[in-house]
Structures are given as C-alpha cells and as structure tokens.
From TrEMBL, chain A:
InterPro entries: AAA+_ATPase, ABC_transp_ATP-bind, ABC_transporter-like_ATP-bd, ABC_transporter-like_CS, Oligopep_ABC_C, P-loop_NTPase. The keyword Transport applies. SMART domains: AAA (SM00382). It comes from Plastoroseomonas hellenica. This is ATP-binding cassette domain-containing protein.
From TrEMBL, chain B:
Belongs to the ABC transporter superfamily. Transmembrane segments: none annotated. Keywords: ATP-binding, Cell membrane, Membrane, Nucleotide-binding, Transport. Its main location: membrane. The keyword Transport applies. PANTHER family: DIPEPTIDE TRANSPORT ATP-BINDING PROTEIN DPPD, OLIGOPEPTIDE TRANSPORT ATP-BINDING PROTEIN APPD. This is ABC transporter ATP-binding protein. It is found in: Cell inner membrane. GO terms for molecular function: ATP binding. Pfam families: ABC_tran, oligo_HPY.
C-alpha cells in the first residue's frame, strides 16, 4: 500500500550570516531525512529543541521549500505542484501550532477563524458554513454559542480547541501537531490529549505529533522517530522503541525523564552546533559507547520495522529498564477513575 | 526535629490592579529544614513565584504582604530595606527559569560571580575572580577559566543556569529558592542541572525550595512537597507519602494527568474546566468547581489545611479519601 506521506532524503539548510552580511555557513536543520508515514494512526517525532522537528514538519507540508529531496503525498510529488493544484492538496494537510495565543488572529471571531479554511477550500456551500462551524465546535468540546466571541475571551486550553476545530474543519487527511499541548498546564494538557485521541480515532486521521514530551508521545503515538541534529537516529513502533531503545541517544532521552527514567547517569555536555555537526556519527561527542569508527563513519538508519542509526545497535548491552513504579497502587487507581470521563462521542465526519 | 531554615506562616499577598484587587497568595504556611528540598508544585498562576518573591522581598510596590516569614528565626517582613538587601544574595538566594533575564549581558560570567563575592563576602577583586573561577568549576562548567571570560550570550542555556547557580551559592546561602530552574531546558540538560543542585545541597546543607509544575521532578529531587492550587496550599507531605497516598483530590487528578513512559493507562485522568479567576475565586473550596467529590459544604466553606496522618496535611472536607471509596 502506498504510504500517505513519504519523505525521501529531504534536506533543509538555513544560511547563517554575520553582522556584516558575510556567509558563515548554514544551520543544517534537516539533513537527509527519509520517512514513510502510513495512512491512519499517529507518528511522533521527538528530540530536543533545535534538532529540526519543526523544520521537518513545515517541509513535509511544503510550508517551506526543502533544498533537496522528494515529498510524496499519496504518491504525488508535492514539489511539482503549484498554484491551484497545490492549494487543492493543502485542503488535505493541516497543522496545529504550540502557542494557542499566537495561532489565532485576535481580530477574528471564533466563527470566522473556523470558517476561513472552509471558505478557502470551498468545503461546504456558503449557506452551510455556519452549521458546519457549530458542528466543529461541539466536536472539540466547546459550546456553539461561543462562536461569536473573540480569542482573548478564552483560556489557553480553549484556544487550542479552537485551533483544532479550525485545522479539522476542511476535513484533512493529514494533520501535523507541532507541540500542540506543550504550552498547556498538565490538567488541561490531559483534556486536549484525550480530545486529540478521540478525534484521530473517529475521523480516521493520520497525525504527525511533534513533541519533546516523551510521556505524551508514548501515550498517543503508534510509531516514533527520534531526531538528533537534523537526522533521524531511531524509528519504530512506539511500544518497541520505549521498551527496547536501540540507539544510545534514545536511551539517554528516556533515562533523563524526571520521575520515570532509567537509572542511567545523565548525558554529559550540550548538543553541538548544527552549523558544524560532528563528523561521522553526530552523537559521538556525547555517546557513552563511542569508538574510533564512530567519528569517522556515518551510521546508516538500518533495520526492519525498528531502525537505528548506530554502528553498534546490534551489539550494545540491553537498555536499562524504565521504572515501573506504582506507589499509589489500587487505591489511587480507584480514586483517579473519578477523573476519567467516558470518551466524548465526536462522531464520524459527515 | 531540626529547626527549619525558612518558616512561612499564613502568608498572603494582594495586588492592586486596574480591575480590582487580586489575592494571589492566601494563607500559605510552609517550612524547610537545612539540607532538605521542599518542592512547591502547582499549575501556572497558583501563586508559587509570588510566594518565593515575597520571601526575597522582591515583590513590586503594588503588593500588600501579610503573615510571617522567618529565615533562621529572623522576621524578614520586619527588616528595613537595606538589611533585607544584605540578606538577598547573602543568607538567601534565588534562581529563575530564564537565566538570561537575571544575568547582565554586559559582564562576563566570571565578573558576575566575582561581583557577588565582593559584595557579600568582601573579597578583593583579584581574589574574587579567582574564587569565581573555582565556583564555576564547582558547578561543573567545563574549561571554567575560559568560560569565566565569556559573556552570557556565548554560553548555552544549561551553562547560563550553572552560572546562576554559582552566583546564588557564592555566598553560601542558608536558603536557595529555585523557581522552575530547568523548565526552559532540554530534558538531558535538565537532568544534569537537577543532579548538580542536589549534590550542592548535600555538600552545603542549604535548604532548597524547588518550584516546579512537574511531579516527576518532585519524585526525583525533593524530600517534602507542598501542592498549591489557586493561591493556597492544598496538601503537604513527604514526597514518598504524596505519591503513595495522596489525600487531596487535586493531587489525585494531577498524578493521573501525566502520561507514563510505560504506557497502558487508556484515557488520561483529566481535571475538567480551568483554574478560577483569582479576582473572583469561588467562596468555598477553590477546587470545588472541578472536583468530582464536591459536596454542598465544599461550595460554601473553605476547608482548612489539617492533618490526616502524622506529617501529612490536606485541605479537603472529604479527607481521608477512603470515605469516597466507601471503605472504612
Ligand atoms: N527560519 C530559520 N532561519 C534560520 N535558522 C532556522 C530557521 N528555522 C529554524 N532554524 C534553525 O534550525 C534548527 C532546527 O530548528 P527547528 O526545526 O525549529 O527545531 P525543533 O523544532 O526541533 O526545536 C535550529 O538550529 C534553528 O535555530
Ligand atoms: N505584579 C503582579 N501584579 C498583579 N498580579 C500579579 C503580579 N504577579 C503575579 N500576579 C498574579 O498572581 C497570581 C499568581 O502568580 P504566580 O505566583 O506568578 O503563579 P505561578 O508562579 O504559580 O505560576 C497570578 O494570577 C498572577 O497573574
Ligand atoms: S555510532 Fe557510535 S557514537 Fe554513534 S550512537 Fe552508535 S556507538 Fe554511539
Ligand atoms: S473540599 Fe470538597 S471540593 Fe474541595 S477538594 Fe475536598 S471534596 Fe473536593
Ligand atoms: Mg519546534
Ligand atoms: Mg511562576
């Protein structure tokens, strides 16, 4: 089966200039990424800030032009499309951003914000637009009476619901969420995570979740790709990658999660500059397993189903297990059941 | 029982704003012993930073502060401004989420640590700079002698936070207030900084107040916890007790809202609704509009923070929560 989205050796570098306008090389934000996104379900892209997640997401939707590589959506090369054909495709691909305060135009009512993509793409006849907006608001858990209000009248969590309604209004096949819950407080984050899960399931969406929060990723992703300095270092089914990480960087990320990580000591040092990444394996300056070969030879992303870009992926000692702590036990689970409302009936898309 | 380094009793902070007055902190009581870390956890707007700023005497003039704050038995709210200034950076120090806003961009890292040493420990300039380099080494800045001559913008976020820690610890404070010190950092760097703070605390016996919204950080890095909600402390316990036997419904909800790396929780527990508007908070229990266990009394009367077990306090009319489970 053709994947919904396919990236083939995609590269995006940002030129860097000094104060006098002289070239100082380039930030290698995305540096040779190949990825195949099957239809349906959630693929997460994880990694620390600056590793190229957002750039990759924007390139995938061709919101920014890659320098090199192919982007195929349902087998069609997006880079060959322009004008009306590209616009028609855009209807199938939407993005939700992190900052719910920046992502809505303060001069547009909720109704106008959600209606805009419907008008742009001619999704429904004009006479039906108002009904459709009301329906979308209900679907994301907001009362339709709120349609005439302004963004500043809403909390961060409600704004993110509005942004989700806007992204889903035109009935896209693929949605990218770029840190969609990262700016929300944990109790509100849980509401929005639950909502996203319901919508992804009910609407049969393909969702790319960009996130640095490994707990959220484990919770909703089917597959996960780990990035470091512009490259994917590991990719595979989420339960597999979390239980049995093959790449030393993935292991270090998991070890560092407060309260849940493994007992491995924290990684030393900072991420090197993406302008001049280390030669060979980009992780070798911080890797506890680095050997001579690592600084000389670039490791390829190898494996079937669960891939890792490490020369020693097959011979590393087993990863330290995650902490299975359950201090609250049965009592806490019974109390928490009161905080678990039944899934919202978001219904199928008409 | 050791004598606490910091004792806060019935602290209240009220701001006069254009749209009426706002009581950001309402009757908060806390204490921290030397060599221990108290985590103050709660969502944004719950009054964590305002409480810490009240201790430091750094609130703006529009703030009205009530209650008692004692550092080693000395009443901080009664001190004249110059004396309080001497305590800041001397007996007590604070580090913030964004070190860039507290560092001076025009001075090198070493100069800024040395300045603290000159002011508070009376060292001569050359001795202060040498000691500053030693301090930067102590907070594990690699190549400290070279880094000491660099400006903040030449350092990574993690290194800037290390410089802030060096400045804060330069004068061997009895109390360190750390307000979300790793929230802006990546997870691997966060782990380094929190490990460093813990180690320095063990070496110096400083009392630490660690403000965070991350219960995972609490689990790994604090001995005691206070959970805040809408300007009040709703639960206080040792960290071990809080995770094993939380007694406040808000804590129960928070613990279930954070997904786990091992997966398998089905739907996340979620606390419906949002935090109250602090200009017009609910009259009774502030959590009542979001609490699945609320009863009539909760809406009318604020529950006091009371002991449910030795050393374990909760502000809930329905505590112990065994009641709501129907067990005896
Ligand atoms: N428009 C841009 N111009 C220059 N550099 C950029 C631009 N966008 C991103 N970068 C750089 O590219 C790298 C990757 O950035 P980004 O994709 O935003 O990472 P992430 O989302 O993983 O934090 C970073 O070093 C960032 O500073
Ligand atoms: N200088 C100020 N003037 C008016 N209100 C303030 C001021 N500082 C903080 N507040 C308010 O006090 C409340 C508590 O804030 P804060 O202590 O910063 O919360 P937290 O640190 O828990 O996120 C918030 O409602 C905030 O808007
Ligand atoms: S290739 Fe070498 S340096 Fe890179 S992750 Fe594997 S062991 Fe570490
Ligand atoms: S006092 Fe009532 S509303 Fe408040 S937390 Fe307890 S049960 Fe819930
Ligand atoms: Mg990003
Ligand atoms: Mg704060």
């Amino acid at each position: 089966m053709t994947p919904l989205l396919e990236l083939d050796d995609v590269e995006k570098h940002f030129p860097v200039r000094d104060a006098l306008g002289r070239s100082r090389g380039a930030v290698r934000a995305v540096d040779g990424v190949s990825l195949s996104v099957p239809e349906g379900g959630v693929l997460a892209i994880v990694g620390e800030s600056g590793c190229g997640k957002s750039t990759l997401g924007r390139v995938a939707l061709r919101l920014i032009e890659p320098d090199r590589g192919a982007i195929r959506f349902q087998g069609e090369d997006l880079r060959r499309l322009s004008g009306a054909a590209l616009r028609a495709r855009r209807r199938d691909m939407q993005i939700i951003f992190q900052d719910p305060f920046a992502s809505l135009d303060p001069r547009m009512t909720v109704e106008d914000a959600v209606a805009e993509p419907l008008i742009l793409h001619g999704t429904v006849p004009r006479a039906r637009i108002r009904d459709r907006v009301a329906e979308m608001l209900v679907r994301v858990g907001l009362r339709p009476e709120l349609a005439r209000r302004w963004p500043h009248e809403f909390s961060g969590g409600q704004r993110q619901r509005i942004a989700i309604a806007r992204a889903l209004a035109s009935g896209p096949k693929l949605v990218i969420g770029d840190e969609p819950v990262s700016a929300l407080d944990v109790s509100v984050q849980a509401q929005v995570v639950n909502l996203l899960q319901d919508l992804i399931r009910d609407l049969g969406l393909t969702f790319i979740l960009i996130s640095h929060d490994l707990g959220v990723v484990r919770h909703i992703a089917d597959r996960v790709a780990v990035m470091y300095l512009g490259r994917i270092v590991e990719e595979g089914p989420a339960p597999e990658v979390f239980a049995n990480p093959r790449h030393p960087y993935t292991r270090a990320l998991l070890a560092a999660v407060p309260g849940q990580g493994t007992a491995a000591p924290p990684l030393e040092g900072d991420v090197p500059s993406p302008i001049s990444p280390p030669p060979g394996c980009r992780f070798h300056t911080r890797c506890p397993h680095a050997a001579a070969r690592c600084s000389a030879e670039v490791p390829l992303l190898l494996g079937a189903g669960h891939r890792a870009a490490c020369h020693f992926a097959d011979t590393l000692p087993p990863a330290a297990p995650l902490r299975e702590a359950d201090p609250g036990g049965e009592r806490l689970r019974r109390l928490q059941a009161f905080f678990r409302p039944p899934p919202a009936q978001t219904g199928a898309m008409p | 029982m050791t004598v606490p380094a910091l004792t806060i009793e019935n602290l209240s902070v009220e701001f006069a704003t254009d749209r009426g007055s706002l009581r950001a902190v309402d009757g908060v009581s806390l204490s921290v012993a030397p060599g221990r870390t108290l985590a103050v956890v709660g969502e944004s707007g719950s009054g964590k930073s305002v409480s810490a700023l009240a201790v430091m005497g750094l609130l703006p003039g529009s703030a009205r502060v009530g209650g008692h704050i004692a550092l080693d038995g000395e009443d901080l709210l009664a001190l004249p401004p110059e004396a309080l200034r001497a305590r800041r950076g001397g007996a007590m120090a604070m580090i913030f989420q964004e070190p860039m806003t507290s560092l001076n961009p025009a001075f090198t890292a070493g100069e800024q640590v040395a300045e603290a040493l000159r002011v508070h420990r009376g060292l001569a300039p050359a001795a202060a700079f040498a000691e500053a380099v030693a301090m930067l080494e102590r907070v594990r800045i690699p190549d400290a002698a070279r880094r000491a001559r660099q400006y903040p913008h030449q350092l990574s976020g993690g290194m800037r936070q290390r410089v802030m820690i060096a400045i804060a610890l330069a004068c061997r404070p009895r109390l360190l207030l750390a307000d979300e010190p790793t929230t802006a950092l990546d997870v691997t760097v966060q782990a380094q900084i929190l490990a460093l703070l813990g180690q320095l605390k063990r070496e110096t016996g400083t009392a630490v107040v660690l403000i965070t919204h991350d219960l995972g950080v609490v689990a790994d890095h604090a001995e005691d916890v206070a959970v805040m909600y809408a300007g009040r402390v709703v639960e206080r316990a040792s960290a071990a007790t809080l995770f094993a036997r939380p007694e406040h419904p808000y804590t129960v909800g928070l613990l279930g809202a954070a997904p786990r790396l091992t997966g398998g929780e089905g739907r996340l527990a979620s606390i419906e609704g949002t935090v109250p508007d602090m200009r017009n908070p609910p009259p009774g229990c502030r959590f009542a509009p979001r609490c699945p266990f609320a009863i009539t009394r909760c809406v009318a009367e604020p529950p006091p923070l009371a002991e449910v077990a030795p050393g374990h306090m909760t502000a809930c009319w329905r505590a112990p929560l065994a009641q709501v489970l129907g067990a005896a």
